[in-house]
């Protein structure tokens, strides 16, 4: 289902203007200073949706001029507008950079309203980047600041955006709670646009839960309100929502009417994003009518718009629909072509999310270190002040107050020791935070990979079974060679399914540490997942003990630890080599040896490999957390790791775990 395709995200404090370009450009000709900057800002707002390159040009001019006249408020707004242009172009990384600069300026100005806007905008960007928990943190801060300063304007937008995050987290009930709050806030200040936004978003959540009656009711209310306030953009969203309900109910003629009306509205305001979404839905309608050629024509038009605007989620939906249409036509070549494009784009997006989630960990650590450093500096200043005061007392009062000075010094010493203990506790907490966040991130990501891989596997499997039935029904087609092909394909699918099952071990969320874990099965699962990397260049030799391989622990964490160690061995072998894995069961413990003949570890680095963020890889190729997390996991299981290397070639990891 494609219900989320027409959720439009609004950056806080930004309103859209249409049809003002000519008058604004004329007004710009004789303006200088702040007046010119203000008009440049209006032009950016007018053009950023449909003419992003021009909008960017005017935004950069506004930023340069604001900097020249040294107006901090103008600089902040220019930065936010440039961030908005990048946002609607789909370049979220650049948008995040400019929003952070605007946020720093807001903090410098001590402007609570601008700080609130910064939290809101940065939260939306993390939402689009797929970092939903981080997005939620920023958006909740934005809400809390608005409550603290009593700012009503914009609260509905913030609540709507929080609802969108819960929608992506598939907590639809919580999403509707925030959308409902947004609707009430907007109603209280007669903000019809935000009311309309909330109604459409509530309708979308109901479509996802297949509650079509409730969805239709909210979309119709949205359409009526859009007509009352002449909001063509949101009216088009409501029309698409009604059309999708009709399509799901099989009322194809009505669905076609609403999709065409939506397209007409979006074209009237040159809303390219809305046009792209309308064509996508018209393609689904044509496919339901079994008019594949017409479906492809609609999809071609919509896909061109999506590529032009770099709307990657829309492109994903389009590519998946292309593949489905050509599959129904029996055109396997184009079906596979578009399926491969879909997989490549999806994997690219997923890789971006992985990279950003991992990069958030060092960022949070840096913020915590900065906080500690500030606390230490404040303590030093406080200590110096106390010392100066004590010397003053000695000079003025001398001996009679000597005892008072001693008491104060002892009290100060106790405070210093207490502060030192607190700092040590904070540093310990940091390490635990890194480990838990990293494990949670990797587990969720692995679950996502497994879910995404399973979908095409099920599709292929079902297709094979259907084709087999057709072959059986037609004796002229069936032959031994085709049976062999079926067997090969099924074996391939079963193998891929086993990989998905192996990945599920990494997404286990249980915190139990007393389950019985089979180390041999864990190692085999890790080798299965890494098979694509090792099969062409590395020979893996396993020498497993026959005396049993069960230890007490957390299976998901032990999977992660073994995966990191085996992957580390694979990365050490640049061309061809061997990895030997040996297990031994002793009287009270279990040993795993992982040996490789790849590049060794220099002696000066052996003591550092368990340190967080230590890496010898090039920037961007590693976070330096893999072995740190591995050592932490084994220590949690009351075990230990011993590493030996001659420096030039070959490394041996010995993992010892209690039985």
UniProtKB/TrEMBL annotation:
Alphabetized InterPro entries for the sequence: HATPase_C_sf, HATPase_dom, His_kinase_dom, HisK_dim/P_dom, HisK_dim/P_sf, Sig_transdc_His_kin-like_C, TPR-like_helical_dom_sf, TPR_rpt
One Pfam family in the UniProt entry: TPR_12
Coiled coil region boundaries: 409-436
TPR repeat intervals: 116-149, 196-229
Taxonomic superkingdom: Bacteria
Transmembrane segments: 390-409
Enzyme class at the top of the EC tree: transferase
Domain Histidine kinase per the UniProt entry, residue ranges: 448-659
Molecular function per GO: phosphorelay sensor kinase activity
Protein name as annotated: histidine kinase
Organism per entry: Ekhidna lutea
Lineage: Bacteria, Pseudomonadati, Bacteroidota, Cytophagia, Cytophagales
């Amino acid at each position: 289902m494609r219900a989320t395709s027409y959720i439009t995200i609004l950056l806080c404090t930004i309103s859209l203007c249409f049809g003002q370009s000519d008058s604004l450009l004329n007004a710009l000709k004789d303006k200088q200073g702040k007046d010119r900057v203000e008009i440049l800002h209006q032009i950016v707002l007018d053009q950023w949706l449909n003419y992003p390159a021009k909008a960017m040009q005017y935004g950069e001019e506004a930023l340069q001029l604001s900097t020249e006249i040294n107006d901090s408020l103008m600089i902040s707004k220019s930065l936010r507008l440039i961030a908005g242009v990048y946002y609607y172009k789909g370049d979220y990384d650049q948008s995040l950079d400019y929003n952070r600069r605007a946020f720093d300026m807001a903090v410098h100005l001590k402007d609570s309203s601008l700080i609130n806007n910064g939290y809101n905008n940065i939260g939306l960007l993390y939402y689009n980047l797929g970092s939903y928990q981080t997005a939620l943190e920023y958006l909740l801060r934005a809400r809390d600041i608005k409550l603290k300063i009593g700012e009503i304007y914009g609260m509905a937008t913030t609540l709507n955006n929080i609802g969108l995050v819960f929608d992506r987290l598939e907590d639809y009930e919580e999403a509707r709670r925030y959308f409902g709050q947004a609707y009430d806030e907007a109603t209280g200040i007669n903000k019809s646009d935000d009311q309309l936004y909330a109604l459409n978003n509530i309708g979308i959540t109901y479509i996802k839960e297949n509650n079509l009656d409730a969805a239709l009711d909210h979309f119709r209310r949205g359409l009526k309100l859009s007509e009352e306030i002449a909001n063509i953009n949101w009216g088009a969203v409501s029309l698409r929502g009604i059309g999708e309900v009709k399509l799901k109910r099989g009322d194809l003629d009505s669905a076609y009417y609403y999709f065409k009306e939506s397209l007409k509205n979006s074209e009237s305001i040159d809303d390219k994003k809305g046009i792209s979404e309308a064509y996508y839905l018209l393609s689904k309608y044509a496919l339901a009518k079994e008019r594949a050629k017409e479906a492809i024509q609609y999809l071609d038009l919509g896909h061109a718009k999506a590529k032009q605007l770099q709307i990657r989620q829309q492109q994903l939906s389009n590519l998946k629909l292309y593949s489905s249409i050509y599959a129904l036509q029996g055109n396997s070549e184009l079906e596979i072509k578009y399926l491969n494009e879909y997989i490549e784009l999806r994997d690219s997006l997923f890789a971006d999310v992985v990279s950003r989630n991992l990069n958030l960990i060092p960022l949070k650590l840096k913020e915590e270190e900065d906080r500690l450093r500030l606390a230490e500096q404040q303590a030093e200043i406080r200590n110096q002040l106390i010392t100066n005061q004590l010397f003053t007392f000695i000079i003025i009062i001398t001996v009679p107050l000597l005892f008072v000075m001693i008491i104060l010094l002892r009290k100060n010493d106790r405070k210093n020791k207490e502060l030192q203990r607190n700092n040590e506790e904070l540093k310990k907490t940091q390490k635990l935070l890194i480990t838990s966040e990293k494990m949670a991130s990797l587990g969720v990501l692995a679950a996502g990979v497994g879910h995404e891989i399973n979908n095409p596997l099920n599709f292929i499997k079902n297709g094979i079974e259907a084709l087999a039935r057709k072959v059986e029904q037609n004796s002229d087609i069936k032959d031994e060679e085709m049976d062999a092909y079926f067997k090969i394909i099924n074996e391939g699918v079963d193998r891929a399914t086993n990989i998905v099952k192996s990945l599920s071990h990494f997404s286990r969320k249980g915190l139990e540490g007393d389950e019985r874990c089979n180390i041999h099965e864990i190692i085999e699962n890790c080798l299965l997942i890494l098979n694509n990397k090792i099969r062409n260049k590395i020979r893996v030799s396993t020498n497993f003990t026959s005396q049993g391989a069960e230890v007490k622990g957390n299976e998901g964490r032990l999977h992660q630890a073994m995966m990191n160690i085996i992957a580390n061995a694979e990365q050490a072998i640049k061309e061809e080599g061997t990895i030997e894995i040996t297990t031994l069961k002793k009287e009270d413990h279990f040993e795993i040896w992982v040996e490789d003949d790849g590049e060794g570890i220099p002696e000066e680095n052996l003591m550092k490999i368990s340190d967080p963020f230590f890496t010898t890889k090039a920037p961007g190729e590693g976070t330096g957390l893999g072995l740190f997390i591995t050592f932490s996991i084994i220590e949690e299981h009351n075990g230990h790791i011993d590493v030996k290397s001659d420096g030039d070639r070959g490394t041996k990891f010995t993992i010892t775990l209690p039985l």
